[in-house]
């Protein structure tokens, strides 16, 4: 989770204390909260175990101090399968926010090979 820009202001008109929550399956991570900014820079990495990239989705929720939703994003993991080197690295718009509100997300799918040996 890299950063965001042009996040909406709080209902009071002040800049938000922006944090991001990332959810994939039953695993949830939260970034640090960046105080009083609508262009936070988290620069944090999180790792998820993906069992079936064709079925799982990554949900990113942006909020102010975890109590006021500012926008969200749904990324089907299968989209990474068609990206060069299985890496998505781009600015993405947020649902429920202004058209200018975006996050810079780098998602990388790494394949771990396992070898199963059976007794003959």
TrEMBL record:
<dbReference type="GO" id="GO:0006869">
    <property type="term" value="P:lipid transport"/>
</dbReference>
<dbReference type="GO" id="GO:0035091">
    <property type="term" value="F:phosphatidylinositol binding"/>
</dbReference>
<dbReference type="InterPro" id="IPR035892">
    <property type="entry name" value="C2_domain_sf"/>
</dbReference>
<dbReference type="GO" id="GO:0008429">
    <property type="term" value="F:phosphatidylethanolamine binding"/>
</dbReference>
<dbReference type="GO" id="GO:0005544">
    <property type="term" value="F:calcium-dependent phospholipid binding"/>
</dbReference>
<dbReference type="Pfam" id="PF00168">
    <property type="entry name" value="C2"/>
</dbReference>
<dbReference type="InterPro" id="IPR037749">
    <property type="entry name" value="Ext_Synaptotagmin_C2B"/>
</dbReference>
<dbReference type="GO" id="GO:0005509">
    <property type="term" value="F:calcium ion binding"/>
</dbReference>
<dbReference type="InterPro" id="IPR000008">
    <property type="entry name" value="C2_dom"/>
</dbReference>
<dbReference type="GO" id="GO:0031210">
    <property type="term" value="F:phosphatidylcholine binding"/>
</dbReference>
<dbReference type="GO" id="GO:0005789">
    <property type="term" value="C:endoplasmic reticulum membrane"/>
</dbReference>
<dbReference type="GO" id="GO:0061817">
    <property type="term" value="P:endoplasmic reticulum-plasma membrane tethering"/>
</dbReference>
<dbReference type="InterPro" id="IPR051634">
    <property type="entry name" value="Extended_Synaptotagmin"/>
</dbReference>
<feature type="domain" description="C2">
    <location>
        <begin position="1"/>
        <end position="92"/>
    </location>
</feature>
<protein>
    <recommendedName>
        <fullName>C2 domain-containing protein</fullName>
    </recommendedName>
</protein>
